[in-house]
Amino acid sequence: MKLTVLGCSGSVPGPDSPASSYLVSADGFDLVLDLGSGALGALQRHLAAHEIGAIALSHLHPDHCMDLCGLYVALKYSPSSPFPRIPVYGPPGAAGRMALAYDLPDDPGMEEELEFHTWQECQQIGPFTVRTAPMVHPVPAYAIRVEHGNKSITYTGDTGPNEALVELARGTDLLLSEAALQDNNPDNPGDLHLTPSDAGEQAKRAGVKRLVITHVPPWYDRVTQTENARRTFPGEVLTATPGAVYEI
Q1: Which residues belong to any copy of the Metallo-beta-lactamase domain (predicted)?
Q2: Which of 48, 86, 95, 99 is the most exposed place for a label (fewest CB within 10 A)?
């Protein structure tokens, strides 16, 4: 498997990065994990919009899904259309939410271009076995584990610390973990995001092999957040940057 960072800015697009989006590739199949604000442009540096194998949405906040609107336009109005529908896996209500975002009627909404599926605990998506677990966030949100052969990537999406994440990430080769809050900040809201120390602690408890820190908002420094995660995780800790590629 190959993991490519399309966007790693937390909560909003940043000056050097779109919001959350990651490309997982194997056996000629490309799975997009989230398609946040600004990510469609970065995606097209790697493949054409209609070449996406499937899309996996961790949750329906705009910084994780809103570029589906641009994708809908690209698929619908391309001179080469129509294309086969692209499967989109996400929380319940994703089809209706995205139709509303583009001011479309619920029927057909985006369903002529995108084929929406509600997350199950486990499903086969192309060559990948994809497992999910509900996370702790103000809206329905899921961590996503992508397995191929004996390798795996686990993506936290957005979440506060919780046992389900530890169990889903158990033994994973790479944990792509958000770290949107600062350590030791008494004003941090609960059940919303991870601090770097949280990310490192969850990774340590899960026994992951590598930790990649992502989803750092533009008002914080992503290198500092990564350094702070090293306080609680004894293994390799890396910083997600736009265009970074990880071989699994």
Answers
A1: 18-215
A2: 48
